[in-house]
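Hi support team,

I'm opening this ticket because the web form for multi-chain structure prediction keeps timing out on my end. I have pasted the exact lines I submitted so you can reproduce it. The total is 730 residues across two entries, so I didn't expect it to be a heavy job. Is there a limit I'm missing, or should I split the entries? Thanks in advance, R.K.
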Amino acid sequence: MRGILERRYSILDLISFSSQVFSAIGFSEEDTQLAAKCLTRADLRGIDSHGIARLSGYVRLFHAGRLNPRPEMKFTSTFPAVAVLDADQSIGFISASVAMNHCIEMAKISGCGMVAVRNSNHFGIAGQYALMAAEKGLAGMAFTNASPLVAPTNSSARMLGTNPIAAAFPALESRPFVLDMATTTAANGKLEILQRTAQKAPEGWIQDSNGKSSDNPDELKNGGALLPLGGESQNGGHKGYGLGSVVDILSGVFSGANFGPWVPPFVSFLPLPENPVGEGIGHFFIAFRTDAFQPEQVFRQRMEDWMKSMRSASRIGENEVMVPGDPEWEAEDIRMKDGIPVHPKVVEDLRNLAIELKISSTLFE
Amino acid sequence: MRGILERRYSILDLISFSSQVFSAIGFSEEDTQLAAKCLTRADLRGIDSHGIARLSGYVRLFHAGRLNPRPEMKFTSTFPAVAVLDADQSIGFISASVAMNHCIEMAKISGCGMVAVRNSNHFGIAGQYALMAAEKGLAGMAFTNASPLVAPTNSSARMLGTNPIAAAFPALESRPFVLDMATTTAANGKLEILQRTAQKAPEGWIQDSNGKSSDNPDELKNGGALLPLGGESQNGGHKGYGLGSVVDILSGVFSGANFGPWVPPFVSFLPLPENPVGEGIGHFFIAFRTDAFQPEQVFRQRMEDWMKSMRSASRIGENEVMVPGDPEWEAEDIRMKDGIPVHPKVVEDLRNLAIELKISSTLFE
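Hello R.K., no limit was hit. The queue was backed up. Here is the completed structure from your submission:
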């Protein structure tokens, strides 16, 4: 995917261009800044599939009337540590940030807090919302459902999204532990790379439209499905299905959003599912005070010790034993210094977006 | 594993015998009943590896001075919705039940509640504590760490336990959704079956002591390790490692229990790890009110609809598409009616236990 054709941009350039776009479709000044930062955090952390490459997708959702640039979001709360947020078709970046901030506020008083969000749209990388809590010394978790691409064990149908799980914990000297994972064997982004480069997919990644295991990444376009983490049932695929289910239930059933096969697609050219069971897509957030369990410095030291023990575990060959989040922190360091490589196709897409929205930008000079 | 040599016992017989054993080693009347019920719930639900087959193991932990039959457990709580429980070397069945009950009580007032437990012992199947909440109309989650058997991605060392994740949600007509899964590709019990029957293990289950993928289930005895869910990294093994890590951090780092390679072994003949980083093993529990998110009947109906949509998804061949928990509910129905098959080796072990503790039982007539 990397190559000499890829130009590198500074994170500030990407934030600046994204801001121009969000502003052009009517976001408030505050939401513009936040959305641009959340979107490009994916690029900064090395998760190219969820960053600026999706910017035009959000604009198309806006044009399709499915994304509200001026949402009036409403919390409903009947207990001190739990709330539901109706996101009023907000872009996920805003509703997720607002929801996690509310979790943190509730956790300050009660020790923990949970928010389920309905009527929202995609929120980029889940890890950043978990990280919001960790950066304030709390533990954070984030979940979202997504449009159906994944087949349950024994089924040939797409019933669940790639439904990610994210969890973040603060440490002492190290930057926070951040797990951010799709509940599928392979992320969709990895399949796109295989499709682009005409490579075969490893066993356990996908099945064809009849539910037969396949190594052809194009089967996904032909009605096939991604396999849940674990792949075939013999290798624990039913566990990945179970995890994806928990994420869908938290995000969709609890919030009043759509769930399962009714979760609306990210791409605006696909029709919305008929007979929806809720509103928009759903997220779920949890924050809890680490100092409600251990004195803050004790907790941070224990977390540091945990990380140290994993990082110093005996290696197979030369590869480092890493802690979840380490690869993304490395990517942030490198990309802050050297810039962010953007695929020529994405640059072309952004150039067209700029023309369409009458934006002038130094990005394409 | 099933065969004509296996005798079947009623659940009441197994509870009765377990009660005699717990009583004989000094449990209070109340704890005896609860521990016997929690232990044998595994047998009832078809998870033979975690039930009565482990009874003598708990007795050996008692003899080794590592299990306190009369624990004085203490909650520490500085916030309304969070607490830490020092289990005073209780058997896990008691501390886990007490902790989940406390989560439920906190959730009644705050909407959600969390308890981290330290200084505990193994608690059998995680699912039953999540189910405690679901049977009262709440959502429940349960986690525990366990002695190290699992290698992180890129490591040849055993650093984490099979660290299960359990989650349960109530529905309307269906019995609750119950996910209860080890964060490894294969449960240890499945490997024991392969060892007993001299079968090879599928790829992605285990590695040898050098970290090389192996199909020989005996490699685990020779210093090898179980692989995290996903298996090799190409198939998402780093995600299973990440999930097992989250479970270890919640259960061990938050509670003040041991974590990672310091978690004490279940078997009493293995020495305790040197330089412990905490007390005993650790658990973590969460309960939250479903009616804090949706009116109770609405939530239950949505959950029922979710289950129905998965169960009616198009099948590959004849196998049913199930919801997590369905196989265990089926096992409960069958075993309540037909009794519970117990392996002859386990019966022999129980007979020896009865002799040792001077228990007379009709179990062996």
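A quick check on our side: Residues 1 and 193 of chain B are 7 Å apart (CA to CA). Let us know if the file doesn't open in your viewer.
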